[in-house]
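ligand=flavin-adenine dinucleotide
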Amino acid sequence: MAGGGREIIVLAVGEGGDPTVLTLELLGLARGLVSEQGMVTAVVLGSHFEGALDEIASRGADRVIYLEHPSLAPYNPEAWQAVLEPYLEEQGAGLILAGHTCLGQDLLPRLAFSLEAGVVTDCVGIRAGEDGFLFTKPVYGGNALATMRVTTPLTLATVRSRVGEVLPPSSPGGELVPLPADPPAVTRMVVRERRSLEAGECPLEEARVVVSGGRGMGGREGFEMLRELARLLGGTVGASRPPVDSGWAPATCQVGITGKVVAPELYIAVAISGSSQHLSGMCDSGKVVAINKDPEAYIFKVSDYGVVGDWKEVLPAFISRLRELV
Amino acid sequence: MHIVVLAKVVPDPEGPPSSYEVNLADKRVVARGLPPVINPFDENALELAIRVKERIGGSVTLLSLGRKLSRAVILKAMAAGADASVLLEDEAWDQALLDSRATATLLAAALRKLEPFDLVLCGRQASDTNAGVVGLGVARLLGIPAVTLARSLEVEGGRVVVERVLSDGCEVVECDLPALVTVSGEAGELRYPSLQAIRAARELPQRVLGPKELEGDVPPPWMETVCLEPPRRERRCRLVEADSPAEAGEKLALLLWEEGVI
Ligand SMILES: Cc1cc2nc3c(=O)[nH]c(=O)nc-3n(C[C@H](O)[C@H](O)[C@H](O)COP(=O)(O)OP(=O)(O)OC[C@H]3O[C@@H](n4cnc5c(N)ncnc54)[C@H](O)[C@@H]3O)c2cc1C
Ligand SMILES: Nc1ncnc2c1ncn2[C@@H]1O[C@H](COP(=O)(O)O)[C@@H](O)[C@H]1O
């Protein structure tokens, strides 16, 4: 088995506050994949993450290796690499996991080429095969699913949200071990500033209900109505790509292969045709409802409930009836 | 300022799902009736390159690797504002067979022949592999810094300033040149060339390089595809029947309520 179950390392970011749900999911996933004798190690880099360490240690990590340093937050790939590469080389783990986030997408291919190891990005499933792990990921914009195998002793993978399951807390948790390393003071690349978009709404990935609009919404006003519907259902607004490109919805709303991957209990797709790239970001949702004026729209093939009609007429009636019900 | 743009030729990713067929036996995806296009994120990268050239001058080279690359597609991309193209072409360089390590190694070998360059731009990911690996691999093999997910960039005093897309906002990073930058869709669409420009592009220098002209061998793969399958996502849809769209809206609310969906 290529490096198999010896040790699985989960890379986590510490930037104040709690660990992300995705990090905890990865720990659950790693626990399920690691062999009896193997161990799960979480590596946390960043700054201000006191509470996060204990939480991570109690949710499936045998060990939490951490390093708090101002050069590591905000994330600087070269500083992270300088700290991680010597450590990873020495560890000889079989598998390194990170979330398929902006950070994971940026970091893991870098580590892979430095450590001369195969990397599979955007995994929607990982399982143990006869000789090594098998990784499933969408290709061709979600029009096919590929199962890949890596031939190097070490494998790296970025994983989508909701692939692993968060484990219940256990005590005592794994031990906390500081990583003795010094990030370089100077790197070829520096972060000058960071701007966060409007916060407040529940993050899309964690919403129980997502109400998304597509090109057929025709403008910003349409999205006002979607926001009203989302509020009523305790959900969050999403979008396909065209509304984001047109500026009707912020980029943080985009659902799909190059946007966010969501799997809420209820996904309502309004005026969205159902391209593979969009479906790839929401097809694991619990129930899917489609509202579209074209009866032939592909979205109906992947929905549980549908209304054929113009949203301008369907939605107001839907919303006012819902108001009476919920 | 010499900018090289890595541009991959792929089947049109905007084609309808029904045109994509998964061939289980030889683990290939066949895109029926879909024209080849430049990977959309690589078009975004080319657009950024042309904007830099317009502001501070210089030249843009298009670099593409594959088997039987469509000349019409390359020509149209060049007509948007490139100055030259280099095609790495061979029967054995079929993109369905090379992994990201092999692809990055070949592209890096070609880039060494194109030196000096100041900036290499590529897409954040190819629409077929959906990987986002090759660009970072090329940068590593060339020993130059890399910045991912750019929505815009500026060259200032020998450095590049990149605005990066993050899931909750954006960040501005600054990096030494030469550098490689991967570009996201937010950079904006590639301008459309005029017919006149397409005709004129035929006169631009085009080089084709094969295995003989490139130094080094294709390294053994790090990854292999074990199987390919079509996505399983179809569901049985209950369409709400009603006399008017408004009535359908009301009925939908009731149905979701009765079934415990809301
Ligand atoms: C590399 C790549 C990555 C991509 N990544 C993503 C991604 O992450 N997410 C994403 O969503 N897309 C992505 N796309 C784009 C994707 O291919 C599609 O173009 C896009 O999803 C289509 O969005 P849409 O369904 O809103 O628009 P359209 O396909 O134009 O559909 C609009 C729908 O609205 C309906 N409609 C119009 N008016 C009304 C009305 N008044 N009432 C009711 N219905 C109406 C129409 O019948 C139609 O079905 C990507 C594309 C590429 C090439
Ligand atoms: N065959 C190729 N020819 C030219 N550029 C490529 C090729 N393959 C990948 N690239 C570049 O690398 C980027 C990332 O590819 P990938 O890692 O496969 O997602 C693409 O957007 C292209 O810019």
